[in-house]
Design a protein that fits this description.
By secondary structure, this protein is α+β, with helices and mostly antiparallel strands. Among the domains are: about 30-45 and about 275-354, conserved putative lor/sdh protein from methanococcus maripaludis s2 fold (Beta Barrel); about 50-60 and about 190-270, Elongation Factor Tu (Ef-tu), domain 3, CATH 2.40.30; about 95-155, Helix hairpin bin (Helix Hairpins, Orthogonal Bundle). The chain is about 25% helix and about 40% strand. Strands 1, 17, 18, 19, 22, 23 and 24 form a seven-stranded mixed sheet that branches. A six-stranded antiparallel β-barrel has the order 3-10-14-13-12-15. Strand 20 (about 305-310) and strand 21 (about 315-320) form a beta hairpin. Helix 2 (about 95-125) runs antiparallel to helix 3. The longest helix has 30 residues, at about 5-30.
Length: about 350
């Protein structure tokens, strides 16, 4: 073998030896790498919320009752009809009251004539002051009787006190009603509200004017806007819960809202809607400080972070890592700063995803 061939053979031997060494080193590194499950730092909603169900109700509901007794002569509206303030809902038979009114007017005329005569006699000092005072009292009583029976006759006409919708009609023509019998229920549907009840701990975190989401069961899971209109000042004596009145913005909802619809009101007690977070399993506490293992180029880099709230198995990360960063979220007790790692899957709370 000449010198040239000997030199070539020696070079090939060095290359093969070098390649074999690198493969053995890579295999050794692979065997020493610790398997980990990873999770991405992602922006999520960690808000503290309460969802409470309650039906839609009209803000104003009026129970129309009879204020005098009598037979119902006419009923002009039924359920679903819209009425204006002052429109006649029904009329009662007031012929007896009208007769009493005519009698009262006759007595009033007589009392006035008597008063005029007694006044002249008193001015002429023909009668005593006591006699004139008696005539005055009789006149006042007669005027009072006329006023009373005028009101009684007027009460036979049942009018709407507000612009409203008739939601219940409880009488028919021919019925006889007594004073305080309920005749109609009318509601103002221009302002609809929902009144869920919450605990004192939750109410303390809410305020008037705060917006929230309303989910109507009849319309699926699409949220619609609502606003806290008022918070009742005292808790219910039995349940110890506070009523929160929420206004429904009907002009911002492309559906007809009816009283009685069931609504789920989602109250935000602590708004953390855009929060960078990692699973709580990714956190490592060392010497009273918070760390995560940031995965970069198959290395676990111990990285200090500032943590915030922990909720629903996730921890808020304020500083230290960024959105999209991968962190170890499983088997972190076996890791040290700079450890070689092998990604075994994506972390989830029950098992992992390859």
């Amino acid at each position: 073998m000449n010198h040239y061939h000997l030199h070539t053979f020696f070079a090939l031997f060095l290359i093969l030896f070098s390649c074999g060494g690198n493969q053995e080193q890579a295999a050794e590194t692979s065997r020493s790498a610790r398997p980990v499950m990873v999770a991405q730092a992602e922006v999520t909603d960690l808000s503290d919320a309460r969802t409470v169900s309650a039906p839609v109700v009209a803000y104003r509901r009026v129970y129309v009752t009879a204020q005098t007794e009598g037979q119902v002569l006419e009923v002009n509206f039924e359920e679903g009809d819209r009425v204006r303030k002052g429109q006649v809902l029904a009329r009662l038979d007031t012929r007896r009251q009208q007769a009493q009114l005519r009698m009262a007017n006759a007595r009033l005329l007589e009392a006035r004539q008597n008063f005029d005569r007694q006044k002249k006699l008193f001015e002429q000092e023909v009668i005593t002051p006591v006699e004139f005072e008696s005539a005055t009292l009789m006149l006042e009583q007669a005027e009072s009787d006329v006023e009373f029976w005028t009101v009684e006759v007027g009460l036979g006409t049942i009018e709407s006190t507000i612009d409203a919708v008739v939601t219940a009609r409880l009488v028919e023509p021919g019925n006889t009603v007594n004073t305080n019998d309920r005749l109609f229920t009318i509601e103002d549907h221009n302002l609809l509200v929902v009144r869920p009840a919450l605990s004192e701990l939750d109410v303390a975190k809410l305020q008037r004017g705060q917006e929230l989401e309303l989910i109507f069961d009849v319309f699926g899971d699409e949220p619609f806007p609502g606003t806290i209109r008022r918070i009742f000042p005292a808790a219910d004596a039995i349940s110890r819960l506070f009523t929160v009145e929420v206004e429904i913005h009907q002009n911002r909802i492309p559906h007809v809202i009816r009283p009685g619809y069931l609504v789920r009101s989602r109250f935000i007690l602590d708004d953390r809607s855009n929060t960078l977070a990692v699973p709580s399993e990714a956190m490592k506490i060392q010497n009273g400080e918070n760390f995560v293992f940031l995965i970069k180029e198959d290395k676990a880099i111990l990285t200090k972070v500032e943590r915030g709230i922990e909720r629903d198995g996730k921890v808020e990360i304020r500083t230290g890592i960024s959105k999209g960063d991968k962190v170890a979220a499983g088997n972190i007790s076996a890791l040290e700063d700079g450890s070689d790692v092998r990604i075994a899957g994506t972390f989830r709370r029950h098992g992992f995803i390859e």
